[in-house]
Amino acid sequence: MRKKTAATVLASTLLVMGILSGCGSKSAETTDNSGNKVTTISVWGMGEEAKSLPKMAELFEAENPNIKVEVQALPWDSAHDKLLTAVASKKGPDVVQMGTTWIPEFANAKALMDLTPYLDKYPGLKQDNFYPGSVQTGTFEGAYVGVPWYIDTRVLYYRTDLLKEVGYDQAPKTWAEMQDAAKKLADRGQGKYGFALDVKEQSLSFMLARQNGSELFDAAGKPLFNQPAFVDTVKYMNSFVENGSAPVDLGIDAIQGFRGDGVAPMFISGPWMVQLIKDQAPDIDGKWATAVLPAGKDNNFSSLGGSNMSVFQYTENAEASLKFVEFMAKPETQLKWMELTKSLPSSKEAWNNPVLQEDANYKVFGEQLKTAVPMPSTKQFEEIAQNFLSSFEKVYRTKGADVQKEMDDFNKKAESIINK
Amino acid sequence: MKGFTSRKAPYFFIAPAIILLLVFSLLPIFVALFISFTNMDLAGLADYSNLSFIGFKNYINVLSDPVFLKAIFNTLFYVIIGVPLVIVTSLGVALLINLGTSKIFKVFRVVYYLPSVTNVVAVAVVWTYLYNPAFGLFNYILESMNLSAIPWLTDPTVAKLSLILMALWRAVGLNMIIFIAALQGIPKSYYEAAQLDGANTWQQVTKITIPMLRFAIFFVSITTMIGWLQFFEEPFIMTKGGPLDGTMSAALFIYKNGFQLSNFGYAAAGSFILFIAVIAVTLVQYRVQAKESDY
Description:
The complex is a heterodimer of chains A (420) and B (295).
Chain A: H1 2-23, E1 29-31, E2 37-46, H2 53-63, E3 67-74, H3 76-89, E4 95-99, H4 103-108, H5 132-137, E5 139-140, E6 143-144, E7 147-153, E8 155-159, H6 160-165, H7 175-186, H8 202-211, H9 228-242, H10 254-258, E9 266-269, H11 272-280, E10 288-291, E11 302-311, H12 318-329, H13 331-341, E12 344-345, H14 354-358, H15 360-369, E13 372-374, H16 381-397, H17 403-418
Helix pairs in contact in A: 8-9, 16-17
Chain B: H1 2-36, H2 42-46, H3 57-63, H4 66-99, H5 104-117, H6 120-130, H7 137-144, H8 156-183, H9 188-196, H10 201-212, H11 214-229, H12 233-238, H13 250-260, H14 264-289
Helix pairs in contact in B: 1-14, 3-14, 4-8, 4-11, 4-13, 5-8, 8-11, 11-14, 13-14
């Protein structure tokens, strides 16, 4: 009987201890050995780049011994949900990486701190350190909520050897040349295509429409998606599928189509592909290059994207968080980040570095950045872009689709989303 | 004191489960009902003063949304084709396994049950590769037999059937175990009496086994139907609702609108319509099928 009671007492003590340790809250301020206050800030990062964040955190901690940085890496698909929970519970990170397309909705929900009052104390965050397009992505209704961290723009990746075979010593420079080159490449034979048109990429059509002269929205904010400039862009995109120069439902990704025999030797994407191609397709080393986008009727503007760093509105460690964001925005830190992740720095001064001036691919990106414009920063844009993808799917999956009618319907849907 | 504890003891035992049920199941249902009458979105989530009541507007918009109507049609497709398939397949497998007496049948029980213990997300990722049009195993086998490749996940109707196939593979195991247990509960005396009267195996199965399994069939059909009305993980992982919303299910529609587009009020209205549908179907099933057990 005694053994039984002893066992019960032991078990229940363990149980209670477990419950209490779970209930205990972690305090953000502790004292280290020398009696100084140590602040801990939590930083949320997403995507591949977040895996390199801890190294930068170590450098920051070396310079600031009384601040500890805890990095949490989140995959992109679950990051949006986690941010929603953080907004609802008012408990979240101190510093958070924000994709440029997410800033409008979270800034509208007042989840991101306006940094304007702190610019004098932290001059590294000032807007003129960065490209105007990037600053635009971090500004919402006058509030400066995101400091540009790294930027990307889209350029054309192409197989130099295969294009030479069909008579193109340089990359196509206009829409007409693009269609011609793609058709010639597709004529190589059965199962061969010219251009891997990405039908899941939300920004592609809007980027191309700007090249064709479309303003996307008029001065009053009404959508212009059924006007000729936009409709002709959709017809241009559909032409690749119609004449067989772009694959549909092939089930292979861009690099698998790019290497070897070159099932799809041209595609449009961002700077992260450079390292991925070098890693996954070493057999085509020296046989591929990047080029600025072919020009439409008006221009060859590309889209400017990337990530910004924001401070969570409900943080309790504002000063430490701002120090960290300023550290990440310094040109030296950005160049170190570029070494680690091959992503492009947002600081104008960093671009004067010889590495960026001399490498062939970086030169192309630098050239394209001069004419890169971000996507419209309205909070409904994500929903409008998703609806475009559905409308475009109807277009390219139906033979002889009525593009004008689909775009009329899409325009009506966009109007109803904006007027909600 | 003794009388008090022995009278109230049962309530203490069921209290944890009831509290969890109330807090995590019933309370959110009422909150969702409330949200469905507002225009809650991300801004409303951050600051409740941004909310405003819009009455039944969400419900009207949801019922006139062509994507939602397609999602309902797809969900009914999954249920009407999938649930009978699950019942017939698991019952058939259970009957065959029960007929055998050697040890090998015990092994087969484990083999058929294994898919049920797998994680649906991991399995969905693997099956996406099996169905891949260029590299997938299924098309590879078809082409090595000189048959044309099937557009498993790229044709709207075939995609639905592919998802049903995968979910069926996972669902057979658990239901088969339920049927085997029920089968072993049928008294052998019935079969012996039938054999004395000269019944063959087929007549024994249809006249004795299946009527005696009525309760098990009722249980399996109700749980399978409730589960398949909320068909979510397979289209979410494998096709994301595509192509052309051909595999969009009601639950996936709610998720897309609620969590990806942050239209919480709209999604809550959709989820309530699904809730009412599931309750209605379950009540109808009860009326039609529930009868007292025969022994």
